[in-house]
Structures are given as C-alpha cells and as structure tokens.
Amino acid sequence: MRFFNTVGSINPENHYFIPHRLDWEQLEDFIEKEYYFILHAPRQSGKTTAIQEFGDHLNRQGTYKALYVSTEMAHTAVNDIKKSALALLQEIKGKIAQQFPGETATLEMVDTLSHGAISYETLLNQFLTWWTDHSDKPLILFFDEFDGLIGDSLISVLKQLRSGYSTRPKHFPQTVCLIGVRDLRDYKVKTKTQEELGVLYSPFNIKASSERLRDFTQEQVRMLYLQHTEETGQQFTPSAIDHAYHLTQGQPWLVNALAYQACFTDPATTLRSGVPDCSKTITKELIETAKEALIKRRETHLDALVSRLTEERVRNVIDAIINGAVSKPMDDDDIKYVEDLGLIKRDFQNIWIANPIYQEILPYVLSSKYQSAMSGQSVDYYNTDGSLNMRKLLCMFTEFFRENSECWIKADKKNKKDAQYTESGPHLILFAFLQRVVNGVPRYTAQGAALGMSGIQYEYALGSKRVDILVKIGQQRIVIELKIWYGPQALLEGLEQTAQYMDKSDATEGHLVIFDRNAKKTWTQKIYQRQEQIGDKTISVWGM
C-alpha cells in the first residue's frame, strides 16, 4: 500500500505524489538557450522530487546527459576548500556511478584528479571541463541543497562555475541549476576585506532566471487525496479536502502530514497503527483533529520553522506582522528571505503568515515564555454553566498588563541575545493570558488537548493595523480585536473592523482592545472600559 510521505524525497512506488510540478517546456527552453538558473522553494516543498523527475525525463529523451547531485556532504567544510572540494567530487562520482554506470573512464578521472590535485580551488572546474570534453552529449547539472554551502567553500564553487561559463557548452556543462531554499540574492558572502569596506560580494552573476516551485493548488490537493481513495476505497468528503487546503494553503509537507495523520494514525480511522480502516470516511472534523495533533507534537517540519524565529532578520518581519503595523522601515531583502523560508506570503499591500497552521503555532511558541511567568495565577474565569466570562478575564488582564508589561518589554529590549519580539510584546502577553485561561493549561500539553472544549484562532497581517482573535468555547464565539493607538482614527477603524469580524464569525460577543504605546501618558490616561454600539453589534472597548 502506498502512503502519504512526510520524510525525504518521494518514491512514486511507495508514496502518493503529484507529478510534473515544474514547467518542463520552460526549463527545456532554458537548456536550449544554455541558461544557468536557480530553482528555490521552502524546505520540504518537493524540490528534490520535482527536479529528479525532470532530470530522468531529459535522460530518457537522449539529447542531454543530466546529473543530479546533492551538495550536502560538503556543507560542514565551511571555509575548508580542500575538504569541501573532495566531498563534492566524491558525491559527483557516486551519482555518476548510479545514473551512468558505464562511464568508467569518468569515474577513474575523479580519483585521478582527487589524488593529484595541485589546487583544490579549481578541482571542480577541472573535472567538469574534462567530463564535458569527453562526453558524447551536452551536460546538464542540478546541484541540490546548494544554499547549505557557506563561507569560502561557497565562494570557491561559485567562482569555478562562473569561470567555466564562457566555454560552455563545448568545454563546460551547457546548463547548471542551483537548487535551495533561498533565491540567488542571498548567495552573497562577506570576505574579510569587503566586510571592512561594507561591500557584499556575489560571485555568481551569470544566472538567467530564478524559478520558484509553487505550493499545491486546491485541485492538486484533491488529486493527491483521491489517489488514496482510488487505491484503498477510503473516501475524503469534499469539505475535508477544502479544509485541508485552507489549513495548509497547499504547503506540500503539511498536505501530506494532515492526510497521513487522518488516514494512517488517528485511532478513529485505523485498524491498527499504519493500517487504515477504509470503511471510515475522512471528514472535515478529522482533518481538524489531525491539525491539532501535528501542532501538539511539534513535528520536525514545524520545529525547523520555529527555530528560524530567533534569527534577527526573521524576527524583524514576524514581529511587525503580529503587531499589524511597522514602526520602522523593513529591509526588502529580509522580507524576501522570510518569504523564501516559506513563513510568509505577500501581495502589493499586505504581508501575512503563509497558512493558518503556521499562523496558529507562532503566537503559541512566541508567547510561551510569558505563559511560564503566569504560572502562579489560578483565577476561575468560567461561569457556573461552563461558559467563559470574557469581561472578567479582560478586567484581570488589564490589571495584570498594567503591573507587568512595562518591565517585561523593557527587559526584552535589553536582552539582545534572546531575540525578543518587542514590537508585538503587548499582543504576545495577551496571547499568553488567553492560551492559559481558555484551556486552563497551555493548549498543546496532553492535558490541554484532552479538554477538547476550546480553541483560539488568530488572523493577522502586516499592513492591516489589526489582529483578529476568535475564542471558541462550546457555543460561545468571542471576537477580540487588537489595535495599536495611533490617534482617534484607531478607535473608529477598530470598532468597524470588530463589527465586521463579529459578523463574519457569527460571534456571540465582541471586544476591542487598544494598546497605547505612548510612554508620556500615565496608566490612568491609558486605561478605560466602555460599551459602543455599531449597528446591531455591542462592542466592549478596552483601553490599555
């Protein structure tokens, strides 16, 4: 039985997969024009599978000799050019032996050059020149995991590729494709001399195009899931497929992980671990349960993304997105970098977290330190009927925020090494307060998941000047709108936005929280609470 793969590249014999995700006609045009180009996409998006599939297609055609190589074995070399050159050449030798086993002379030449190398800075160039000169077909090279090369090792490889570029295709590969997470703009390395001058150095100025492998479309998600139905008979409801696409926005790892959890792991749909009960239909509710399980377990994919949050250039962007507005100009290279990592998406007006799963896990992770600091609180915010008393909660939060926020946020600003999110600090403190109270314990502990009675949904985007929170407990649907005070217009906009979100969410009550960051104002001036009426919506306004 095939299954949904979440580890490594796809093997079509073992895994469900979407073929032909790259535009082969366009890539063949690049090759005919002898282009060197970049292919990039976030981790676990299917780059390796897609490029290997295209390489096999080229080799079947017989016009070119296409070789796929991973540079991963050379990543640890950093500034050791000899170590990286030998590791890369041995990797190339291994791939040639696998893909072109008849090329014994080429394999022998790898050993000859490796053992007799005079300059390791030209070793790759020498080999590729020799192989091209002795090949009966033009060479096409795909270097995967390329952005894992750093320091002098990266500079050396890029220089050698550039050096041979002018002699292609007779004496050097006709086309070279560099594959990684990042676009070419980040293949810039500061040498010691240029660091002193403040100049960035990019030795690879010969690329003709940068192509991005796109996420699955909604139709591709449906096609992937229907492969499972065709092979096992287990059905997905249309709403389950739609919900999976909504939660993932087509991110391939998430699409596969949700389906694997729902079909092969969930006790409600499996006969035993790894064996699906094909009589059980996969519903929207099961996809939602699968999402909760993935977030609770903090799978490797999610942990890898979370680890990026400590990087300064990532923090600058994510901090502003959670805040809903920018307090200082952001570097467009930083935005592009975070986009390349797959954490965000953007259009001409807004920047937002890439999908609802990432959008849900980031506030939880970033507010976790505040949750720990609140561990001594034990106030009961629930009414006798089990409903949440949000007015009582926000009253207590106002008091808590007044007593603690200033010292916490100031401490964060001083602690440069701890990568703190100071711009969104007030939002994160409220997130932490809600996470603890709504579930009684941090949401993704085993105890919190077992409650199965509540949830918090976040919506936020840079440029929106707002953060939408929807708290769901039983039949309660409570909207909390967060705004930063920048003048009287903030209140008017906030009321209108809260009313709109209440209508969209079919909310039972709505609250507008306005944080005033003006250090010249006293707490007495900042704190207030009153009711406002917008159409048929009654909104509680909380100034802080």
Strand element count: 15
Strand content: 15-25%
* Distance between the ends: 57 Å
The strand line-up of the biggest sheet is 8-9-10-11-12-13-15-14
| H/I helix tally | 21
Provide the number of structural domains: 3
Supply the helix-strand structural class: alpha/beta
Helix content: 40-55%
Overall spatial form: elongated
Provide the gyration radius in Å. 27 Å
Short synopsis of the structure:
The protein is α/β, with parallel strands linked by helices.
Any chance you could write out the topology, listing elements then pairs?
Elements: H1 24-32, E1 36-40, H2 47-61, E2 65-70, H3 81-99, H4 104-115, H5 123-134, E3 139-144, H6 151-165, E4 175-180, H7 192-197, E5 207-212, H8 218-232, H9 238-248, H10 252-265, E6 270-272, E7 275-276, H11 284-297, H12 300-307, H13 312-323, H14 332-340, E8 344-346, E9 351-353, H15 356-366, H16 368-373, H17 390-414, H18 425-439, H19 446-451, E10 454-462, E11 467-473, E12 476-484, H20 488-505, E13 509-515, H21 523-526, E14 528-534, E15 537-543
Helix pairs in contact: 3-4, 4-5, 8-9, 9-11, 10-11, 13-14, 17-18
Please supply descriptive tags for the structure shown above:
Helicase, Ruva Protein, domain 3, 544 residues, 16% strand, alpha/beta, 21 helices, 3 domains, 15 strands, five-stranded parallel β-sheet, eight-stranded mixed β-sheet, elongated, 47% helix, single chain, Rossmann fold
